[in-house]
Specification:
The chain is an alpha/beta fold. It has eleven helices and seven strands. It starts with a strand and ends in a 6-residue tail after the last helix.
């Protein structure tokens, strides 16, 4: 402690504190630890944010594609891939979306990266895109196919009336099924459709109608759970395989046959015949033109679901 005198005569006592070198070292160490902890917390937070952003972009992309905004979906899924380059679902979607908008460069780049990570998934996406291309340029066929017992005839349901009776659209499909059953008398027949009305499923209504029109009950196998085309496929493919069928003849309406054919192909059951229920020449002519990219969207959406890519993360 020392004494100082100011110019006006006042006396001040000044205390000098000596900082021990050990105390300074402690403070420096504490500062270093706190800074390191801050950077670690920031790194963890950034990683978590990046992961959430990738999931959000994936979900946004699926939502946009479902709504028909294909280019917006492609942009979002590109962001998801940039954030999570190893996400094979995102890479598969990037290839599929790029194909839907006609961006061949992005599609091929995504397929190459996907193949390096998961060759089986790459093969599945190739199969899907090829099936869509073929179906888009293949007009509906109103003629039956001649096949044997290793091929199942699969008839897709259609919404019933509130009282459980069938609409004309579904009756037309069943008449086509009867003709197909004559041409392929040894093929098992699968009727698929749930959506019960008045306690009756689509499959039950079809089963009863076919029996009343001369098809033996032993040939008919009903799948009562499906509520959509995707459900028809996912539920009837295992049933067909359990019956010893390695391929299928699909029977449905002319404006539905292409999408159904793609879905069964993606599910791994080869479609060896596709018979369209056609009620007029005009209906057939209307379906002869190749489908545009916008008209193919339903096939892409269904195929993605059948392939097993989640709609959300």
């Amino acid at each position: 402690m020392s004494t100082s005198v100011a110019s006006d005569g006042r006396v001040f006592r000044v205390t000098r504190v000596r900082i021990h070198p050990f105390s300074a070292a402690i403070r420096a160490l504490v500062a270093t630890v706190m800074t390191t902890a801050l950077f670690l917390a920031l790194a963890v937070s950034t990683a978590a944010t990046a992961s959430a952003t990738a999931a959000d972009l994936f979900n946004n992309a699926q939502g946009r594609f479902a709504a028909g905004d294909t280019r917006g979906a492609l942009a979002d899924i590109g962001g998801a891939v940039a954030s999570e380059p190893g996400d094979t679902n995102a890479l598969a979607l990037q290839a599929i979306y790029a194909d839907a908008v006609g961006d061949l460069i992005t599609r091929e780049a995504a397929l190459i990266r996907l193949g390096a990570l998961d060759s089986a998934k790459r093969a599945g996406v190739d199969n899907m895109l090829n099936a869509i291309r073929i179906a888009s340029f293949t007009p509906p066929n109103p003629l039956p196919a001649i096949q044997g017992p290793s091929t199942a005839i699969i008839v897709l349901g259609y919404g019933l009336l509130p009282d459980g009776t069938m609409r004309p659209e579904l009756v037309n499909r069943l008449w086509a099924t009867v003709v197909q059953s004559w041409v392929s008398p040894l093929s098992p027949i699968i009727v698929t459709g749930g959506n019960p009305r008045n306690g009756i499923t689509e499959a039950a209504a079809m089963q009863g109608w076919l029996q009343s029109h001369g098809v033996p009950a032993s040939r008919i196998h009903a799948e009562h759970r499906a509520g959509s085309t995707v459900g028809n496929v996912l539920n009837s493919v295992p049933l067909a395989r359990s019956l010893g069928a390695g391929g299928a003849i699909i029977v449905t309406s002319a404006n539905h046959i292409r999408r159904a054919t793609v879905d069964f192909t993606v599910a791994g059951l080869p479609v060896v015949g596709a018979m369209s229920a056609v009620t007029s020449a005009g209906q057939l002519i209307a379906e002869l033109k190749p489908l545009t990219k916008s008209q193919q969207l339903g096939m892409y959406r269904d195929a993605i679901k059948v392939f097993g890519i989640p709609s959300r993360y």
